[in-house]
Specification:
Elements (H helix, E strand, L loop, with lengths): L2 H27 L2 H30 L49
Length: 110
């Protein structure tokens, strides 16, 4: 895993954990339905933080192919990231074309 991905994982997980803690803390001060909703949301956010770490570790341990799905963009064919058909497909380029003429130099500004 690249270092910037690890740093992003750490920062996002930390942010989710802080938000989850704040929700649980504020739910402890509340009463009734607001307390129940705060506890549910706090636990949900903490669960998301834990699952993000587990998911990142699982993707890393499976070599980037979690459940058979390709998680890397650079493994696709050449036609996946640019306009037009892949190399070798489509009409051949015209022969004998000349490059466009060079533009004249603009006049100097004083």
């Amino acid at each position: 895993m690249h270092m910037h991905m690890v740093l992003g994982l750490i920062l996002h997980t930390t942010l989710l954990a802080i938000v989850g803690y704040a929700l649980l803390w504020s739910a402890a001060k509340a009463e009734g339905f607001v307390a129940l909703l705060g506890r549910l949301l706090g636990l949900w956010v903490l669960l998301l933080a834990i699952l993000s770490v587990v998911g990142a570790i699982a993707i890393h341990m499976s070599g980037g192919k979690l459940l058979g799905m390709d998680m890397h963009d650079n493994d696709h064919g050449p036609g996946m990231h640019r306009w037009g058909p892949p190399d070798g497909m489509g009409p051949p380029p015209p022969t004998g074309m000349q490059p466009p003429p060079a533009l004249p130099n603009p006049p100097p500004h004083h």
